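--- STAGE predict ---
source: upstream dedup step, 1 unique chain passed
mode: sequence only
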Amino acid sequence: MAMNRRSFLHSLGAAGAATTLLPLVQGRGLEAAVAPLRGGIAPSEIRLDSNENPYGPAPEVLRALAGWYEEAGRYPDFVIQNLRTALAASLGVPEDHLILGCGSGELLKVSVEAFMAADRHAVTASPTFETVQSRATALKLPVRAPLVDKALRIDLDAMVAAAPGAGLVFFCNPNNPTGTLHPTDAIEDATMRVLRSAPDAMVLIDEAYFEYVDDPGYRSLIPLALAEPRVLVLRTFSKIYGMAGLRLGHVVAHPDAIARMRPHLAPNNVNVLAAAAAMASLPLTTHVRTEVARNAAVRERTTRFFSGLGYAVVPSATNFVMVDVRRPVAAFRDACRAGGVLVGRPFAPLDTHARISLGTADEMARAEPVFRQVLAG
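--- STAGE serialize ---
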């Protein structure tokens, strides 16, 4: 008889499943672990297209997850409450200033629905993480999106100028897809200018890549979100904690802002395994430092590689780099894929800039000959 997922895990037991799956996951995330359960194998492509953490969750997290498999049949209410308590303590914020989401994507979507209206536009950058603009567009709500500046940083002055009358202003810092960074003081100054000029606007600051940043002028703006009722700070477990496939994000904001968001959330929007993985991740400060160090080493290597070939690399504070490949990105992407390497899609209006996520050191070493061949061609 064919073995399905349930019988496979049951035959192993929780501990056995963790022991069996752990080696598969290290070095390429959860898709390597679930491939045997799908009856297939892990993809052969080198996946440098989605800003994922190529190492996946920490080994301690994977072992902790095994103890929660049998809870998959239960609703997650009590686990969510435990996570909220643990996360609030970790961030140093009151629990009523915290809201959880199915990844940061749900919380961005909810922010559009809660704070925008036909007469209250959104202000975002072009390009930046697109969920705010795509959700607003789907709802036929107005968006103003000033272009990034010549250094490919968010144009703060242009965004502030576009803010009067807005319902939502979105700063992604560091910015995705450019990887560029503003000092926190500059973002805070722009936020305060928005609050003065746009009395109905909420300011949402996306800190998805917070842990990767080593710039001394950068810090979290969570303290500002605690002090200003119209400021929200967004974080995710997808990046440094390697949980993109488990989906968990959170916003720190005033309880009044959270009350406006809550009706737009899906019920039970955080699943048991995501909550358990997050709780197991929070104490792992040494693991976070290790992730930061190896990401920085791979980022430096990748920057040297493209610079050595004569291609400009945008300074990045994240787990990806943007490279001016001096040709249409779509053609570059397709040629890389033919060589077994996946890179990011085009991000208008940066039509010659390719976003390349950072894989493991081994993956990047194997990708370099493909990049060299494509660029030479």
